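Page 37, top half.
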Amino acid sequence: MRNLILSATLVTASLFGMAAQAEPIEAGKQYVELNKPVQVAKPGKIEVVELFWYGCPHCYKFESTLNPWVEQLPEDVNFVRIPAMFGGLWNLHGQMFITLDAMKVEPKVHTAVFDAIHEQGKKLATPEEMAEFLAGQGVDKEKFLSTYNSFAVKGLVEKAKKLAVAYQISGVPVLIVNGKYRFDITSSGGPQQALQVADQLISKERAAQ
């Protein structure tokens, strides 16, 4: 009898959870619809952008929820990370991310950078300090520095800054779906809820195609 009661309880809880997840979202509550849509990087695909900062503790905590979700995204969804740059260390870390992205390093290197800042207390406040740390992660020091200071990377930095302005962001982490819808962990109700909002907006955009 105890097992039957437990099973019934679990089924009820499961159904309740499914109902909660399926609850429709609404502009102005869980997300904001941008007045002027921003062009996506890959036309024909539904884009999900995360704006973040390596130094942001909320971004760091969000990684463990976000990354498994990203790995399961269908083929018609393109996920993009863009560093938010509000000056100072934000800009330096943003340029570091863009450099590593241009060098096509393994995802574990980005994880190592997050860990270094939040678990080991490293600031990584200069290109030289970054290069020294990254050398321990298998990244060629001289190649990193030359790429970091390259014209191409500086151009990508300016592009990232313009996108952040176009998305009208004021903090991180924040997600943008298809250049139209902006939301964050707070407006969504939590990290997992933010991804549920993303899923519903992805479905909305898919249905509109």
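Page 37, bottom half:
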Amino acid sequence: MKNTVVALVYDFDQTLSTTYMQDYVLIPELGMSPKTFWKKANAWSVDNCADQITGSMYYFMKIAKEKDVRLTRENFEYCGTLVKYYKGVEEWFERINKYGKFLGLKVEHYIISSGYEEILCGTSICKYIKGMYGCAYAFGEDGTPVWPARVVNYSTKVPYLSKINKGLGKLDDRLVNEYMPDAKRRIPYSRIIYFGDGMTDIPCMKLVKSRGGNAIAVYKPKSVHKEKAIKLLKDDRVNFALPADYSEGTAIDTVVKTILDRIATERNLEELKRKEDLKKK
């Protein structure tokens, strides 16, 4: 029972990073401010009855072509190198892994984001992430995007969470809907901690919380976003609403370590009970 697997699953934009990943470099490369770009992209989506995430992916392709900017995998990855994180994020993963190891837990980290996998691949924290599930482009022979290969929005985040729960691969779309007994699932929801900041995370938060896991709504410290996180707590969507400061000794650090303590204790109790049950036979 040692090395029990625990999954920490994160949204990315405004959960680990301070704003949308496209805002740091990609949109300025197109000669626009993030505010202007998103306003126009969302308006295009509305005018064309398009899903907002799919619409914005197309809009990036459209504007890049008009501005003669080459969107390549290398360009996207470079954008990832300049992402800015909330305090403590870059030290968080090694510290939590070490704490989990001390408890006999194997901590795995996953990202489910409506941002772009191509940008995530360039981030400094990519090396700590076991699985990344984000929007992605299909690229043509010239190395530029030709089509949205995968779209992740509030409704499609849940299937990826289910894949983590069942131990399935990213492309196992058929198996994700097949019945699997709880005992055979690789990481029970009770051993999942989900981190998110907003509306697109609510279905995942609700699912994890309802199945015995923990959902944490994070918010930018000293900002109006706190009210949004507190509302999720009041509406019983999450277990905790905490400032997005991942430094050692902060509220989020203390809560996560305490949850890991509980998981390890429950694991140990189950093992003791199993040994007692064997005596009865």
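Margin note: The chain has a mean pLDDT of 95.
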